[in-house]
Write a structure and sequence with these properties.
2 copies of one chain form a homodimer.
Chain A (H helix, E strand, L loop, with lengths): L4 H16 L3 H10 L4 E2 H8 L3 H13 L3 E6 L2 E6 L2 H17 L1 H11 L5 E2 L1 H9 L3 E5 L3 H6 L6 E2 L2 H4 L11 E5 L7 H11 L4 E4 L3 H8 L13
Parallel strand pairs in A: 4-8, 5-6, 5-7, 7-8
Antiparallel strand pairs in A: 1-3, 2-3
Helix pairs in contact in A: 1-4, 2-4, 3-4, 5-6
The structure holds a DNA duplex.
Chain lengths: ~220, ~220
DNA sequence: TGGGTATTCAATAGATAACTTGATAGCTTG
DNA sequence: CAAGCTATCAAGTTATCTATTGAATACCCA
């Protein structure tokens, strides 16, 4: 077994994908791409990195097979390469949150006080009975790239002046990018200060897309069926 | 959004776990630990690394929350820290195999010619009807640490001289560490050369343990239910 | 065809990581 | 308590990674 060159090549090849997850900048880019495909420039702006640096990190992600690249006129649009790649990123994120106290701590510090949540099952029931209204508080472009069926788009920074659009007497459920995104937290606080009843959906669009609404608790990895 | 320190800290913390997957040596250690807990020395020997180097890599894995550490007299025994961590490693492995041609290529080169396979569902049926016998061809210590219910242990290097133990007239199903392990391939070839009917189970012990037998095809990530 | 923009390439300096070697600490046994 | 073993630490060398800068390329549009 000592230094079998073929086996060694196998692990080396897998490590290429592992390296993709070794930089916080790349993780942030991946997290942005999990919401919607974007161009290099959009990603550079959203992540606060230089264009060149963003491009280089995207190439690492591309070499690892995590993202696809497509020319669009003068721009190049990157996207997560598939549901399996998306699920892998979410798994890494969730396992690290479960296993690393530092991630939990950083998440709490970033999100602020917890707000009341609702699960996918209960949400579907309340929506079907007309008791609740579902609001996507992400930026409009991300809503356009994909959203939960039946949701209406009110980006967080427009929420305050568009409160009237929300029917009174119905509870408002807000969702955003996922459990580590602050938008829905802030939306719920804004809504409550406006005297509305509001909760946060405990999954984001990527988790929903992968099927969180079809089953109960989140599960990981191969063969959970 | 530009350089939010709290958000940046979050990705930095997650990247700590990402870094764990960035080295082929660590991946090999993780792969070994996926079969059974082991001491530093055992891991060093199995991976062909120096003791000190192995220890350092294990510390990185430990800092990432992927493995646990327990003193056992004069030794220290490491183990994968839980089913979620195990599933994450298997997902990384499988997604990289699906997305990176180089991984596929290296796997084929390592495993040699394909042999006929059988799935968990069909296996359970044949076992229940007494038509097949299931053999675990991994080293005995890995069998002792956990194995598929009803399997008998015949390590690959003992298979040839223990052929008589296998009842004639029944198909032999061999399994080992997983889809990237060569043991079961070699076992099937050995058995066929001895005139026995044999197939390879298309999952290994870790996949089975995580529930591959309970459902059909492998699925990835959160919320597949 | 030429100007403008988006992306990538190339080169560099600074930071991090990998592996080796030799020393240290913890446990077991005589 | 001393000897012997296992694991970890510390220091040093080499290799790799990151981010920056400035140049080059690809595309669009006039």
């Amino acid at each position: 077994m000592r230094s079998d060159p073929a086996k060694s090549a196998l692990f080396q090849a897998i490590a290429l994908m592992g390296k993709a997850f070794a930089s916080p900048v790349r993780l942030e880019l991946l997290d942005l791409l999990a919401q919607a495909p974007r161009t290099v420039d959009e990603l550079a702006q959203a992540s606060g990195q230089s264009s060149a640096n963003t491009s280089q990190h995207l190439q690492v992600l591309h070499a690892a097979g995590m993202v696809t690249r497509a020319r669009e006129g003068t721009s190049v649009r990157y996207a997560v390469s598939g549901d399996d790649a998306l699920a892998l990123w979410l798994s890494l994120r969730d396992v690290s949150a479960a296993r690393l106290a530092e991630v939990e701590r950083a998440a709490r510090a970033y999100l602020g006080d917890q707000v009341e949540t609702i699960g996918p099952q209960e949400l579907l029931g309340r929506l079907a009975r007309g008791e609740a209204v579902l609001v996507d508080v992400r930026p409009a472009t991300e809503f356009a790239a994909g959203h939960i069926d039946g949701a209406r788009s009110i980006p967080l920074d427009e929420l305050e002046r568009r409160l009237a659009e929300l029917p009174a007497g119905r509870e408002v459920i807000a969702y955003c990018r996922g459990p580590f995104c602050a938008y829905a937290h802030r939306a719920v606080r804004t809504l409550e200060q406006a005297g509305r009843q509001a909760r946060r959906l405990n999954v984001g669009w990527p988790e929903w897309k992968l099927g969180a609404h079809a089953a109960g608790p989140l599960t990981f990895g191969p063969g959970t069926g």
